[in-house]
Amino acid sequence: MPATLIGIFIKRAHTGPMDSTSSATLDEKGIVGNADRGGFRPVTILSKERWDDVMKDVGASLGPQARRANLVLSGIDLENSRGKTLRIGPCRLRIGGETRPCALMEEAAPGLQKAMQSAWGGGVYATVVDAGPIAVGDEVLWDVRQD
What we know:
The protein has helices at about 50-60, 105-110, 110-115; strands at about 5-10, 20, 25, 30, 45, 70-75, 85-90, 90-100, 125-130, 130-135, 140-145.
């Protein structure tokens, strides 16, 4: 079964709630409408399977929006992916590195910040290489094209 984009979340204001949406547009600054545009980590990405493992470790049942990541993927391992490029629908995103969990994670569930520190449990951050529309259900794969 191919890897899939299963969730899109947009943060409309800094420290604001993560709003779920079925589609979004990526541009050179990140996700259109997201508060964290441009800068060092414009798009954050989380593996659903890794999130499920972390939830099991801490005995919680929070949805992936609690992680405050923008994109949730299923069927793809993000660990040690720095420098790789993901294709999501027509778009390409270059992984910059691991997203380290902050103290807000402890507010979501006791022990969550520590549990996310292993095996890239906090997900990754990326920059947009090729912009365009994305939607829940889009296929996700590692891009072998070299730029």
